[in-house]
């Protein structure tokens, strides 16, 4: 478990992280989402003991990262934004070096190196020069070194940045796999990515936590209460039916082609009640609804909404989020 309490980091006049508090519970994949400059790397550098905080505390399983750095750091593996890889070495040499720095030696070190090479799919390139590896393989090596020492928690700073689409999928699959045996926190500025693999999403904007929730709850919070449908009828007939239907406020109507009308309406009551009523209103007139659906907000909408709120200086919601974790 990682506890972040009232964390603030100032660089001169710049406040990179502002009074940040959250708790990471074991056994889940957490996505740390925010645009460039939001403060993700700063937060992760502090959480892993690589950077001091201006104010606040970080505790890893109860060990304060500043007071008891050795105990705390042993529990986390970190892939920084720019992992320090030694290009003239081979993955095997590099992992040996990192493993020794983490206090491993002898057969235990050899065994662990074998294990992380297997986990990250690097066995076939372990003797190649790092300089000759693709960006995707270099990133896997960065993850492999984070896994050395068998930490329970893995923190990855933008692990998919700069990769091609195929490499991105491979790294995502690897993160999903690691999530089965580790607590994972990884940062990203790509919504669809965190939505696809995270059980919990923290959204950071301008150094502040603006949301902390499951992808499902974030979407639910933003349900737009709109119904879209296509009716097998001209526009005037659709208008005629809509004005006689309760709980419906038309937002947009268009006769796409003669006798085929697309409509977007706001539901003033429970969405499914209104959908049902619409369905039967059209059926009674012998008109088919060719398509009917709910227009749900996606995470993109949520992100814009949350970060705009923040920009307008309003308070974000759900600041600690620990209740859901
Ligand atoms: P992210 O990782 O979300 O892109 P960062 O944590 O790198 O964000 O940066 C947060 C803010 O802090 C940015 O405004 C950035 O310019 C500033 N910042 C980061 N590192 C430093 C530094 N060493 N000195 C001054 N400002 C910094
Ligand atoms: Mg960063």
Structure description:
The chain is an alpha/beta fold and 325 residues long. The chain folds into two domains: 2-220, Rossmann fold, CATH 3.40.50; 225-295, Alpha-Beta Plaits (2-Layer Sandwich). Helices cover 36% and strands 28% of the residues. It has helices spanning 40-47, 69-73, 91-101, 106-119, 135-147, 165-179, 191-197, 215-221, 235-243, 271-284, 299-311; strands at 2-11, 14-24, 29-33, 55-60, 63-64, 76-79, 153-156, 183-188, 200-205, 208-213, 226-231, 248-257, 260-267, 289-295. The strands form three sheets. The chain has a six-stranded mixed beta sheet with strand order 6-7-8-3-9-10, with helices on both faces. The chain has a four-stranded antiparallel beta sheet with strand order 2-1-4-5. The longest helix has 15 residues, at 165-179. Adenosine-5'-diphosphate binds next to strand 2 and helix 1.
Strand and helix map with partners:
Elements: E1 2-11, E2 14-24, E3 29-33, H1 40-47, E4 55-60, E5 63-64, H2 69-73, E6 76-79, H3 91-101, H4 106-119, H5 135-147, E7 153-156, H6 165-179, E8 183-188, H7 191-197, E9 200-205, E10 208-213, H8 215-221, E11 226-231, H9 235-243, E12 248-257, E13 260-267, H10 271-284, E14 289-295, H11 299-311
Helix pairs in contact: 4-5, 5-6
The structure holds adenosine-5'-diphosphate and magnesium ion.
